[in-house]
Amino acid sequence: MTQEDLLSVASALRAVLDRLSAHPEELAGSRGRKAREELEALAADLRSRLALLDPTRHPESFFDPADPRLFGIFAAIALVGVERLPLSCVEADRFYGSGVYALYYQGDFPLYRPIARTEHPLYVGKADPESAGARTPREQGERLCTRLNEHRKNIESAGNLDLADFACRYLVVATGWQTAAESSLIGLFRPIWNKEIGILLGFGKHGDSAETRRNRRSPWDVLHAGRKWAADGALADAKSEEAITRELGEHFRRHAPVPDMPHIVRELTAQVRAVRAL
Length: 278
What we know:
3 domains; 45% helix
């Protein structure tokens, strides 16, 4: 291919970009999703081919400490390095700060046997600061301890769970970075109580009302009955206990729990390499 041919290709691509700029609605919403995905794939392919034309070799990886994905991984490493505490202790321990946390199960509930007494949390979450401009833990407010106390109360209300079987880790992080940290933890552990996994969602709910929200009883409340507002007879179950049991079994077969700290370190190291790859 000659220099003139390459310039002709560049001109054609520029014309396509001009057309897209003139008609942005063609790529908007769900209607344009397939086209966006195809264009993104083409753009990635074009970058790879242009790199081959460069006489100077590109590095195999690039470390960008400002990449939110990397921060999320580093925060996950920092969190799992924190000493576990009994979840019961948060009732009397008030502290400032927002950030991320993980809940661990150490009991004998049959469905949770694959993760019980391991380094695999059954729930991870974040607590946002009181103000988006908070610069210090004090300015962030008591958001983490408040959130952990909410979870403590929900677990205490369940008739078939014992608070003594739960432990937690938490990490206060700089304002604005808690979401990246939470996303990394969810991606690593796929915790079964997180709504993103779609099995036992409902643990983090603050209340249901059949009249005002036309809602259904969450799968978490189906399995762990006890919260008063979830006992409303007008609420229908979102899932049966049999369906939850089946889904949990399938989940653990597809996503083997991370049993110990060496496995976590290996997984997080692999994530760092993947983010750094160009």
